Amino acid sequence: xxxxxxxxxxxxxxxxxxxxxxxxxxxxxxxxxxxxxxxxxxxxxxxxxxxxxxxxxxxxxxxxxxxxxxxxxxxxxxxxxxxxxxxxxxxxxxxxxxxxxxxxxxxxxxxxxxxxxxxxxxxxxxxxxxxxxxxxxxxxxxxxxxxxxxxxxxxxxxxxxxxxxxxxxxxxxxxxxxxxxxxxxxxxxxxxxxxxxxxxxxxxxxxxxxxxxxxx
Length: 216
Prior knowledge:
Blueprint: H1 9-34, H2 42-60, H3 68-92, H4 100-128, H5 133-157, H6 160-172, H7 175-178, H8 183-201, E1 209-210, E2 213-214
Helix pairs in contact: 1-2, 1-3, 1-4, 1-5, 1-6, 2-4, 3-4, 3-6, 6-8
C-alpha cells in the first residue's frame, strides 16, 4: 500500500506551478522591452528545455535516500534563487560587452535553470505518488491558470523585474511546510521579501538596457 502524499503537497504543486507560469509570462514581458519583440518567443523554448531537463534528471538519478519533502524543498528554493539570479544577469549584463550570440546563449542558459528546478519538482512529486496523480495534476493545472492571472495583476501594479522577485517569493513558500528543516527556507523567503520591499521603495533591481542601449 502506497503511503498518502505529504500534507500540503497539492498546495505546493499548485503554488510552484503558479510561480513558474507567471515567471514565463514576466520573462516574455521583460524580453519584449530589453530585446527585440521576436526574442520573446525564446521564452517558450527555454521553459520547455528547463522543464524537460529537470524531469530527465529525476528519471536518471539514483533512488533517493531522503523523504519527499526534503527533496522538494530545495527544488522550490532553487527555483526562487535562480529566477532572481537569471533576471539579474539579464538586467545588468551589458549588451555591448559580448557578441550577440554569446549574450543570448548566456541568457538562454540562465533562464532555463529555474524551469529545470520546476521540472524536477513536478517529476519527483508525481513519480513518488502515482496513485494521487489525478489530484496532483489538477493542482498543477489550477496553479498554472492562476499564474496567468497573477502575472497580469502584478504587471498592473509592479514593473517586470519587481514582479519577478514577487513570483520567486511565491515559489519559495512551499519549502516552509515541505521540509522539517525550515531555517534555510525562512532565510530565503525573508531575503526575497526584504528585496521586494526595498525594490518597491527605491528600485535597484530594474531594467538597465533597452535594445542594446543604456536606459536610465
